[in-house]
């Protein structure tokens, strides 16, 4: 028995639109180079037109609409973030620097200890 709540999606239309979008962008880039003898504003217009048309077609496809929805939802979530104050950011930065200095001193002393053990005690070098 088929589940009436299952929705089938035909993704070939979205793929065709994305393919068309890529072709429009490629056509804009090719137009930019084919029009090498034309003024630069004509070449730039061909490139921009290809990019704009490609973006418009891509954003009207199903994957493009899903991307726009994802971007809107991401922006909505970003607005919920509680950012630290300037004082808190400065304090955390100071803690990170202090930790880095302490770790550097620890690693330097461990390196010197291992060097002393290997060269002085094990190998007998001075």
From TrEMBL:
<dbReference type="InterPro" id="IPR038379">
    <property type="entry name" value="SecE_sf"/>
</dbReference>
<keyword id="KW-0811">Translocation</keyword>
<feature type="transmembrane region" description="Helical">
    <location>
        <begin position="89"/>
        <end position="108"/>
    </location>
</feature>
<dbReference type="Pfam" id="PF00584">
    <property type="entry name" value="SecE"/>
</dbReference>
<comment type="subunit">
    <text>Component of the Sec protein translocase complex. Heterotrimer consisting of SecY, SecE and SecG subunits. The heterotrimers can form oligomers, although 1 heterotrimer is thought to be able to translocate proteins. Interacts with the ribosome. Interacts with SecDF, and other proteins may be involved. Interacts with SecA.</text>
</comment>
<keyword id="KW-1133">Transmembrane helix</keyword>
<keyword id="KW-1003">Cell membrane</keyword>
<dbReference type="InterPro" id="IPR001901">
    <property type="entry name" value="Translocase_SecE/Sec61-g"/>
</dbReference>
<dbReference type="InterPro" id="IPR005807">
    <property type="entry name" value="SecE_bac"/>
</dbReference>
<comment type="similarity">
    <text>Belongs to the SecE/SEC61-gamma family.</text>
</comment>
<feature type="transmembrane region" description="Helical">
    <location>
        <begin position="42"/>
        <end position="62"/>
    </location>
</feature>
<feature type="transmembrane region" description="Helical">
    <location>
        <begin position="16"/>
        <end position="35"/>
    </location>
</feature>
<keyword id="KW-0472">Membrane</keyword>
<protein>
    <recommendedName>
        <fullName>Protein translocase subunit SecE</fullName>
    </recommendedName>
</protein>
<keyword id="KW-0813">Transport</keyword>
<keyword id="KW-0653">Protein transport</keyword>
<comment type="function">
    <text>Essential subunit of the Sec protein translocation channel SecYEG. Clamps together the 2 halves of SecY. May contact the channel plug during translocation.</text>
</comment>
<keyword id="KW-0812">Transmembrane</keyword>
């Amino acid at each position: 028995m088929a589940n009436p709540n299952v929705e089938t999606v035909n993704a070939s239309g979205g793929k065709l639109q994305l393919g068309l979008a890529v072709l429009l962008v490629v056509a804009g880039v090719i137009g930019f180079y084919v029009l090498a003898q034309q003024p630069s504003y004509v070449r730039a217009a061909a490139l921009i037109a290809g990019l704009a048309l490609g973006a418009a077609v891509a954003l009207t496809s199903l994957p493009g609409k899903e991307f726009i929805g994802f971007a809107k939802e991401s922006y909505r979530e970003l607005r919920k973030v509680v950012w630290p104050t300037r004082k808190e950011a400065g304090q955390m930065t100071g803690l990170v620097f202090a930790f880095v200095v302490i770790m550097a001193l620890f690693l330097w002393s461990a390196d010197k200890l291992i060097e002393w053990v290997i060269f002085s005690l094990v190998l007998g070098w001075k």
